[in-house]
Amino acid sequence: MDLGAIWRVWLPLLLGAWALWWLATSEAGTNGPLRWVGLALGVIGLGGVIIARYTLGRSFTVTAQARQLVTTGIYSRIRNPIYIFAEVLLIGIAIMVGKPILIVLLVVVIPVQVVRARREARVLEEKFGEEYREYRRRTWF
């Protein structure tokens, strides 16, 4: 395992798991079944983000760049799984801490992510052309 994999995958996984566990066991937030629903959504969201990030490997960038067209793993079904699973994580955290106002963040975050996804799609289409268009036809978001 290279040092990059530790920074890209294992460190975020450990920090995210610790944060979710801390939220689940702290006195803050809701008690009872809602806390566990939030934790389950948080774990699913964090897991999805980490798996997507791992699958991207060195192709991950903060700005839209076309290094490689990744179409395997979770990317064989969803074009932007990091965005989708980040939403699930955010909803889980909002439920766990008992702050529905945090869900209002989705009203801001979702349009931003749609704009980013469109920008990324343009960059990928410019570089990969028909290969990317075919990929878009067989995947969701």
What's this model, at a glance?
This protein has 141 residues and is mainly α. 72% of the residues lie in helices and 0% in strands.
What does this structure look like?
The chain has one domain (3-138): Up-down Bundle (Four Helix Bundle (Hemerythrin (Met), subunit A)), CATH 1.20.120.1630. The longest helix has 28 residues, at 101-128. It is mostly helical and 141 residues long. It is globular and about 50 Å long. The mean pLDDT is 86. Helices cover 72% and strands 0% of the residues. The protein is built from five helices and no strands. Helix 1 packs antiparallel against helix 2 and helix 2 (33-56) packs antiparallel against helix 3 (81-97).
- Percentage of β-strand residues: under 5%
* Amino-to-carboxy terminus distance: 31 Å
Q: What fold name goes in the CATH topology slot?
A: Four Helix Bundle (Hemerythrin (Met), subunit A)
Q: What spatial form do the alpha-carbon principal axes imply?
A: globular
Number of helices: 5
CATH C-level name: Mainly Alpha
Q: In the CATH classification, which architecture applies?
A: Up-down Bundle
Mean pLDDT: 86
User: Could you tell me the number of beta strands?
Assistant: 0
- Encode the helix/strand succession as letters: HHHHH
Number of structural domains: 1
